[in-house]
């Protein structure tokens, strides 16, 4: 079967341009997800670059068009690499596309204008583009965020296929006798390159859209489970976690401790400094709490200025120690708002499953009772539920 390389090259270029448009459209609805514009612009450069390579050296002045095409394609792959970095980490090195463009520009000037040699040019270009695609694949395969695993593997796999195909092309052309190879000669590597390249470009575009889709749905899920003001878990997800932890503790016999935290005189903070300052106070408390607790504890906003922490494998006495550290850390915080210095305190009630049982509602009720006791006793303190019980029994 003889596939026509020229037609396939035009098709591949058109496909990439089409996908670039698709990514632009997808990016319009991606909010502040970084990287999508890089992919779209990268696709545009690669598509145009391939299109420019089409006339080869048959038309007058087409040598320069060929240089421009290779340079554009290198810029495009650099932009796609940056897009991956920006998508994954929010950061990228903006010089990478320029560096690649510079390298391929010099290389193309050498092999197309100064010392025209199609053999060496194809080997050199294939090697450079293979390395670029391998770098994109590597960037996708390392430090994978769990919910996006499949999308990263799929897109990284597509880049790896392109990299391997280009390596193979470099090897075949390198080993073939001099002056026997041309881009549009009947060598089977040409149609194979364009066929696999077109398929891989389709997979890449699909992979990018899949990554975007997974990221948006992970963000949505996070939003649905967290409190918008403080970033803590919301009450719904706290209840879900509590049910899961209760089931685990029933199985293992472990204790589960709880803290209910309430800001002291929060109403007067709002009244005196205004609601935006009140909101900021809640954010600062959340930040202190997140820093103080362990990574496997669950910190949630229970409602208004009340927070709750679930502490797996913890008994009331140890929860008290952690709660008192949190109380002290927060009391030591000096907050400044427009020249006003504000200090605030919290009252905390703690309990555990040994005293209150594993039902979430009874744990909350017990810790709440201890927290109100802390308020009654003068605020800025931590009270254990067992202390309230012992007072009742006297
Ligand atoms: N700024 C802000 N205020 C909130 C938010 N949620 C609840 N509040 C306010 O928090 C205040 C809670 O006040 P109270 O329940 O009377 O308690 P308090 O003033 O903290 O007094 P004690 O708890 O007895 O120390 C109310 O004025 C609510 O309007 C919020 O998200 N942001």
Automatic annotation (TrEMBL):
This is diguanylate cyclase. The lineage of its organism: Bacteria, Pseudomonadati, Pseudomonadota, Gammaproteobacteria, Methylococcales. The chain crosses the membrane at residues 63-83, 95-116, 122-141, 153-172, 192-212. It comes from Methylobacter tundripaludum (strain ATCC BAA-1195 / DSM 17260 / SV96). Keywords: Membrane, Transmembrane, Transmembrane helix. It is an enzyme of class 2 (transferase). GO terms for molecular function: diguanylate cyclase activity. Pfam families: GGDEF. InterPro entries: Diguanylate_Cyclase, GGDEF_dom, Nucleotide_cyclase, Rev_trsase/Diguanyl_cyclase. Residues 254-387 form the GGDEF domain. Its cofactor is Mg(2+). It catalyses: 2 GTP = 3',3'-c-di-GMP + 2 diphosphate. Its EC number is 2.7.7.65.
């Amino acid at each position: 079967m003889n596939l026509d390389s020229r037609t396939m090259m035009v098709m591949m270029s058109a496909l990439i341009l089409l996908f670039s448009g698709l990514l632009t459209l997808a990016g319009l609805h991606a909010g502040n997800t970084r990287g999508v514009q890089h992919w779209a612009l990268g696709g545009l450069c690669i598509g145009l670059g391939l299109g420019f390579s089409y006339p080869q050296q048959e038309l007058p002045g087409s040598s320069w068009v060929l240089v421009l095409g290779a340079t554009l394609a290198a810029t495009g792959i650099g932009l796609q690499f940056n897009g991956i970095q920006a998508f994954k980490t929010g950061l990228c090195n903006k010089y990478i596309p320029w560096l690649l463009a510079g390298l391929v520009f010099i290389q193309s000037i050498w092999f197309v204008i100064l010392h025209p040699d199609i053999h060496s040019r194809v080997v050199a270009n294939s090697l450079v583009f293979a390395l670029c695609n391998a770098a994109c694949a590597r960037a996708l395969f390392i430090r994978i965020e769990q919910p996006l695993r499949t999308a990263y593997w799929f897109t990284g796999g597509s880049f790896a296929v392109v990299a391997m195909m280009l390596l193979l092309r470099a090897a075949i052309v390198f080993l073939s006798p001099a002056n026997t190879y041309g881009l549009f000669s009947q060598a089977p590597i040409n149609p194979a390159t364009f066929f696999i390249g077109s398929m891989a470009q389709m997979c890449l575009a699909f992979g990018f859209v899949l990554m975007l889709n997974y990221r948006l749905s992970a963000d949505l899920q996070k939003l649905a489970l967290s409190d918008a003001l403080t970033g803590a878990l919301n009450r719904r997800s706290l209840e879900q976690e509590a049910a899961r932890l209760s089931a685990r503790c029933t199985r293992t016999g472990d204790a589960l401790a709880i803290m209910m935290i309430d800001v002291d005189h929060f109403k007067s903070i709002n009244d005196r400094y205004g609601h935006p300052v009140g909101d900021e106070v809640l954010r600062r408390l959340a930040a202190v709490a997140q820093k103080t607790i362990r990574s496997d504890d669950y910190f949630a906003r229970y409602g208004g200025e009340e927070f709750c922490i679930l502490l797996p494998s913890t008994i009331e006495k140890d929860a008290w120690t952690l709660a008192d550290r949190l109380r002290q850390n927060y009391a030591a915080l000096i907050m400044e708002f427009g020249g006003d210095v504000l200090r605030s305190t919290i009252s905390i009630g703690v309990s555990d499953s040994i005293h209150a049982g594993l039902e979430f509602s009874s744990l909350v009720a017990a810790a709440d009772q201890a927290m109100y006791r802390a308020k009654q006793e003068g605020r800025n303190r931590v009270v254990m539920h067992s202390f309230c019980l012992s007072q009742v029994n006297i």
